[in-house]
Amino acid sequence: MSRTIFFEVEILDSKTKEQLCFLDKVEPHSSVGDIKSLFHKSYPKWYPARQALRLEPKGKALRNDDLLQNLPVGTSATLYFKDLGPQLGWTMVFLAEYIGPLLIYLLFNFRVPYIYNHKYTFTSSSHHVVNLACACHSFHYIKRLFETIFVHRFSNGTMPLRAIVRNCAYYWGFAAWLAYYINHPLYTPPSYGETQVNYALIIFVLCEAGNFSIHWSLNSLKCEGAKCCRFPNPSKNPFTWLFFFVSCPNYTYEVGAWAGLSIMTQFFFVLFFAVALFTFVGFIQMTIWAKGKHKTYTREFKDYPNLRMPILPFIL
User: Fold this and answer.
1) Nearest CA to 244 among 311, 310, 315, 308?
2) How far is it, in rounded angstroms, from Cα 25 to Cα 30?
3) Of 250, 227, 236, 195, which Cα lies nearest the Cα of 300?
4) Which burial class, exposed, middle or buried, applies to 253 when counting CB atoms under 10 A from its CB (0-12, 13-18, 19+)?
5) pLDDT of residue 299
6) Cα gap 45→278, rounded to integer Å
């Protein structure tokens, strides 16, 4: 009968190198997550989601599912701790990010007091496209909220509170900027009239349907925690056929939806710049996420299709 070899784990502060905790007789098959839980017992204020444990003071944070026996540390391990600050679960993160733009836009659409000249208070625009844009914007964020609650699957991951403030400022700020110009009493309808509005609406609706289809498809994947057992593939749903060409078609459709709203609302420079800038900044961020996901797929699945690009077919 083999004798179990236990590990000794020393946890140091990554900045001061001061010893914070010493764990004796830690089983070799213990995960980093298990070590975080043990550390939490000594320091209750640092719950596991706040902890980053590293092999080097400025190294890469270890994953919760990394096993102690698989780390290059021997039987005496030294780990470096960093406090990530207060955290919030992903569901609450998305709810905070999406409820704000929905309500802010409606305040401008209803023209509540102190936004525009007092004579326009609680008046409505005479332009059909203004109300249509409000309906599209509201639908987009209601869909996001619905997906957050009923469709998306989240790992045990969290986001730092300071990052949530930054993200909310981005979503809420852009929503207010767009809404101010689109709902302004002096708003000018699109240059090409109903034709421009109708074609843009078709683009918006198709991309929203595509985005939801991809999210539903991703929800059906069999996963163990945050790791999926297989990569997503096209199904009988035509909106999922974009999987033939890109790894993250949900982002492709998302950009398309905002492009549709940009075309629908106006080519007047200030307004178009506001909507287009929001679309462009979102595209840059989604490209970064898509490249990361694409890299993960190619690393984890040897049979991953070579034709697929991260977000734009054949281009990017």
Assistant:
1) 308
2) 11
3) 227
4) buried
5) 86
6) 38
The tokens describing 144, both together, are: 């996001």
* 82-137 tens-digit pLDDT: 998 888 888 888 888 999 999 999 999 988 888 888 888 888 788 889 999 999 99
CA dist., res. 221 & res. 240, Å (int): 13
- Beta-carbon contacts of 298 under 8 Å, excluding residues fewer than 6 positions away, are 304
How many Cβ atoms are within 10 Å of 35's Cβ, its own excluded?
25
For the residues 144-159, what does the mean pLDDT come to? 82
Position 226 scores a pLDDT of 53
**Sheet containing 51-54: order of strands:** 19-26, 7-13, 76-83, 51-54
Which residues share a beta bridge with 106?
A: none
Report strand pairing: 227-228 vs 223-224.
antiparallel
As a whole number of angstroms, the distance between CA 169 and CA 178 comes to 14
C-beta of residue 188 within 8 angstroms of C-beta of residue 268: yes
Predicted model pTM: 0.81
Euclidean distance between CA atoms 198 and 187, whole angstroms: 18
